[in-house]
Amino acid sequence: MSTTPTRVFAARLVGLPIFDPLGDQVGKVRDLVVAVRSEVNQPRVLGLVAEVFGRRRIFVPMTRVTNIDSGQVYTTGLLNMRRFEQRSTETLVIGQMLDRTVHIPSLGVTGTVYDVGMEQARNRDWVLSRVAVQEPAKGLRRRGQTHVAEWRDVEGLTRREETQGATHLIAALNEMRPADAANMIHDLPVERRTAVVAALDDERLADVLEELPEEDQVEILEHLDSERAADILEEMSPDDAADLIADLPPETAATLLQLMEPDEAEDVRRLMSYAEHTAGAMMTPEPVILGPDATIADALAHVRNPDLPVSLAAMVFVCRQPLEPPTGRFLGVAHIQRLLREPPSTLVAGSIDDTMDPLRPEASIEQVAAHLATYNLVAAPVVDDNGRLLGAVTVDDLLDHMLPENWRDTPLRPGDVRPGGNRG
Predict the structure, then answer these.
(1) What is the pTM assigned to this prediction?
(2) What is the rounded (10 degree) CA torsion for 103, 106, 109, 114?
(3) The domain containing residue 242 runs over which residues?
């Protein structure tokens, strides 16, 4: 470990790629696992929580870490692919230690932990040695003064707090993709998860909820007050909101639908009216829909929306008025590749592909899969008996319903399971 820096701060490790000796990336750092015994003795760093491909979280002992530098972590390559489960004697640095209220007696400072530094001791063990603390903001300052102190000079690090904040943990989560943030929230202790959910803004929480297992979604939503729960459901994509509401007790579902904006609730009710695992139940009612008099410049402006899922940005759906589902007569789709080859001022009607039969809402999940595969599509229109567009089924909608519920807990393939790296 001759090139390893003498001190590494935990927040800077999160998200770094982990490589094996051959230079192949095997995962990303998501947290540090430490054994905290007292406020005098520096806690030993037991290992890393790594996210490997398939969003599985595993434990990587520090004895398997061969090098840490500014941009990556290297391991021996011998990793135990068993899903990480935190023990009662262990503490997660990012998940549990950030935002803890502490006191530095020598400075007369009270604040919250926003980072923790680790370094190698003489016996080659990694230990937590520094604590970065931020005081509350005073006066017109947006941020309070910061201090970095020795571990032994800080009080309150071993004390559990009933009302521990989540400001700095939220900052770390906001740097992650929703799927990665969902994975971290899933693994948090109940009290920390509650604090995080309370602190996340509605839009971000909606994004994260869409990536969580159904039981987590239901648990989180049932612990929110009804007004906020309805706001969260409005921020979710209608198909995900419909799936979640269907898992709630009927009286709860009815209350939330009543509190939602009428237009949003109507979309959800319509999706819930279709049988499970059909095109109608899986579709989103919010693809890019344009009239035949729209220009290609209009179409390109719509698909440039950064909030639009990649699968829905691959094509626009051309319909007669009205353009809100159920629309007027569905005319066809215009593929983004075709649009990019045409002058922006020309009408989108001249680029319509009307050669494919659209799906019907009662189409089974197998029929949807066969349709997308046959035509090499990432999205397909769903129309009713009158030829009106109801929505679009995307390949990610299909995968969400085809994969087994526990797919995140299953290794990608037998070759991904490697011996060694056991926690003992």
Answers:
(1) 0.73
(2) -60
(3) 201-273
In this structure, the answer to whether residues 296 and 269 fall within a common structural domain is no
The reply to whether omega before 249 is within 30° of 0 (cis) is no
Q: Please state whether beta strands 73-75 and 315-319 pair in parallel, antiparallel, or not at all (unpaired).
A: unpaired
Closest CA to 330 of 273, 284, 374, 391: 391
* Residue among 208, 184, 110 at smallest CA distance from 154: 110
- Structure-derived torsion over alpha carbons of residues 120, 126, 127, 130, reported in degrees to the nearest 10: 60
What CATH number should be reported for the domain holding residue 269? Answer: 1.25.60.10
Tokens of 141: 């300052």
Q: Using DSSP, state whether 136 is helix, strand or coil.
A: coil
Q: How many domains does the chain have?
A: 3
Q: How far is 38 from 22, CA to CA, in rounded Å?
A: 39
Same domain? For 239 and 313 the reply is no
Pick from 86, 106, 138: which residue ends a domain? Answer: 86
User: Cis (ω within 30 of 0) for the bond into 411?
Assistant: no
- Residue 281: other Cβ atoms inside 10 A: 22
- Annotate 200-229 with DSSP letters as a single string: S-HHHHHHHHTTS-HHHHHHHHHTS-HHHH
10-residue mean pLDDT series, the chain (424 residues): 67 90 90 88 93 83 88 86 87 91 93 93 91 84 85 87 76 85 85 89 93 90 94 94 93 95 93 93 93 95 90 94 94 94 93 90 95 93 96 91 66 45 50
Return the SS3 of 423.
coil
Q: How many residues does the chain have?
A: 424
- The SS3 of residue 321 is coil
